[in-house]
Amino acid sequence: MLEAFIFATILSGFFGLVFKENLMMKIISMDVMSTGVIAYYVLISSRNGLFTPIFSDNTTNNYADPVPQAVILTAIVIGLSIQALMLVGVMKLAQNNPTLETKEIEKNNTPMKS
Question: Which domains are seen in the chain, by residue range?
Answer without folding.
Answer: 1-49+63-107 (1.10.287.3510)
